[in-house]
């Protein structure tokens, strides 16, 4: 069985549409107008242990909603999802012991205490043996060069420093799966390179499965052999990155992605809706 398996995964949101003007606001008090938005629309995919998958799409395409269903934050409207043998939203406490999550815009570290103290608190939350904790921290320190700011409060860190610490926080309990949502957003070239090298090392040594959402196609090219492309809640493509180059022969991944979104590739139009192209 695949480590991650989703079938017909769908998430709908019921949105309240406000009417314009004073009269419209008065009418809204008695009769409300709702519309249903399908943020994710019946997608199917599987991920095997040790894969690094880039999950990309425009703003509002449905990628963050998918990640939130995979991590158990959101309950699917329909369809099924199994991750590491769990139904994420039903078995959250047991399930979260085996995953790590990094959201680029939010930190799981405590803002006003030293970074090392945040790590020690997380060690206790995840019941990581002290010896394992110290060995992992030593390794992460070597790979990410944390020494200069381990004893600073999180609020005093630069964005690049904080992202390095958030990655360590997500991996201290040695999860099988790491979900990354825009992990390099706003970082300079050197910071991005350091984080990419770190993720390659973790994937190679620990066989950590990584699901990466990003707007930076450089992350995809540097890290992922496979890419899934979603638009308006529908899976447009799921396959190897090298297949994109082989099939449609552009020098840049960005050019191929643009063609996919513009509907210039007939094969993808015909197969839209979750079909994986070999």
How would you describe this structure to a colleague?
This protein has 278 residues and is α/β, with parallel strands linked by helices. It has a domain at 4-98 and 175-271: P-loop containing nucleotide triphosphate hydrolases (Rossmann fold). It contains 11 helices and 9 strands. The strands form 2 sheets. A 6-stranded mixed sheet has the order 5-6-7-3-8-9, sandwiched between helices. A 3-stranded antiparallel sheet has the order 2-1-4. Strand 6 (177-181), helix 7 (189-206) and strand 7 form a beta-alpha-beta unit. It is globular and about 60 Å long. Residues 269-278 have low confidence and may be disordered.
List keywords for this structure.
278 residues; 9 strands; globular; disordered C terminus; 6-stranded mixed sheet; alpha/beta; 24% strand
Summarize the structure.
With 278 residues, the chain is an alpha/beta fold.
Which stretches of 5+ consecutive residues score pLDDT under 50? Answer: 269-278
Distance from N terminus to C terminus (CA atoms, Å) equals 20 Å
Q: Describe the strand arrangement of the main beta sheet, using strand numbers.
A: 5-6-7-3-8-9
Amount of helix: 25-40%
CATH class of the domain at 4-98 and 175-271: Alpha Beta
Mean pLDDT: 86
The CATH fourth-level homologous superfamily of the domain at 4-98 and 175-271: P-loop containing nucleotide triphosphate hydrolases
Do you know the CATH topology of the domain at 4-98 and 175-271?
Rossmann fold
CATH architecture of the domain at 4-98 and 175-271: 3-Layer(aba) Sandwich
Let me know the number of strands. 9
Q: How many DSSP H or I helices?
A: 11
Rounded to the nearest angstrom, the radius of gyration is 21 Å
Structural class: alpha/beta
Largest sheet: 6 strands, mixed
User: How would the global form be characterised?
Assistant: globular
**SSE string, helices as H and strands as E:** EHEEHEHEHHHEHEHEEHHH
Beta fraction = 15-25%
């Amino acid at each position: 069985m695949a480590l991650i398996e989703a079938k017909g995964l769908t998430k709908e949101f019921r949105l309240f549409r406000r009417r314009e003007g004073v009269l419209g606001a008065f009418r809204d008090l008695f009769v409300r107008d709702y519309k249903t938005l399908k943020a994710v629309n019946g997608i199917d995919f599987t991920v095997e242990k040790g894969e690094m998958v880039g999950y990309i799409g425009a703003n509002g395409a449905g990628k963050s909603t998918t990640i939130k269903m995979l991590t158990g934050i959101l309950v699917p409207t329909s369809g099924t999802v199994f991750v590491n043998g769990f139904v994420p939203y039903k078995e959250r406490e047991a399930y979260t012991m085996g995953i790590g999550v990094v959201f680029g815009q939010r930190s799981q570290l405590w803002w006003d205490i030293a970074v090392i103290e945040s790590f020690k608190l997380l060690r206790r939350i995840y019941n990581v043996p002290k010896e394992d904790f110290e060995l992992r921290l030593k390794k992460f320190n070597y790979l990410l060069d944390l020494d200069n700011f381990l004893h600073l409060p999180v609020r005093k860190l630069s964005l690049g420093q904080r992202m390095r610490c958030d990655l360590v926080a997500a991996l201290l309990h040695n999860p099988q799966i790491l979900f990354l949502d825009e992990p390099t957003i706003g970082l300079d070239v050197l910071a991005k390179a350091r984080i990419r090298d770190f993720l390659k090392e973790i994937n190679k040594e620990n066989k950590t499965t990584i699901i990466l959402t990003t707007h930076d196609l450089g992350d995809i090219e540097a890290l992922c052999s496979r890419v899934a492309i979603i638009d308006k809640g529908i899976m447009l493509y799921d396959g190897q990155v090298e297949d994109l180059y082989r099939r449609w022969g552009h020098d840049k991944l960005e050019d191929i992605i643009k063609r996919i979104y513009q509907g210039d590739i007939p094969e993808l139009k015909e197969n839209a809706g979750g079909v994986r192209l070999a």
